[in-house]
Design brief:
Number of helices: 5
Strand content: 15-25%
CATH superfamily: Winged helix-like DNA-binding domain superfamily/Winged helix DNA-binding domain
Radius of gyration: 20 Å
Shape: elongated
CATH architecture: Orthogonal Bundle
Number of strands: 3
Structural class: alpha+beta
CATH class: Mainly Alpha
Number of domains: 1
Largest sheet: 3 strands, antiparallel
Length: 110
């Protein structure tokens, strides 16, 4: 995925309430109202957070067949793949840099 996709995920996860919502959605799907109640947020506030999570590509929603007024949110499959890839690349870069620094120090180079 692109750097823009990784940026969108980071932006969506920047707020602690959105991170908590992602943790909850990792356990099971929730309606917006259930999430708002669980997180102690007003429905319009929860709606804004869910929009940010959708924009970041982390969650998706669907309507109940018997009640189109209720949206059910769940984590999107593969939503964190871009982030995981970026973290793996960054970890590899840091590991290489630290290993090179360690070798340099152990050689006693000036």
């Amino acid at each position: 995925m692109s750097a823009a996709a990784v940026d969108a995920v980071f932006a969506a996860l920047a707020d602690p309430r959105r991170r908590r919502a992602v943790e909850l959605l990792g356990r099971r799907p929730y309606s917006a109202g259930e999430l708002a109640d669980t997180l102690g947020l007003a429905p319009p506030t929860m709606s804004r957070h869910l929009k940010a999570l959708k924009d970041g590509g982390l969650v998706e929603d669907h309507y109940l067949p018997f009640d189109a007024r209720v949206r059910i949110y769940r984590l999107k499959d593969g939503a964190t793949d871009a982030l995981k890839g970026w973290l793996a690349e960054t970890e590899s870069l840091w590991s290489e840099q630290l290993a090179a620094f360690k070798a340099h120090v152990e050689r006693g180079a000036p």
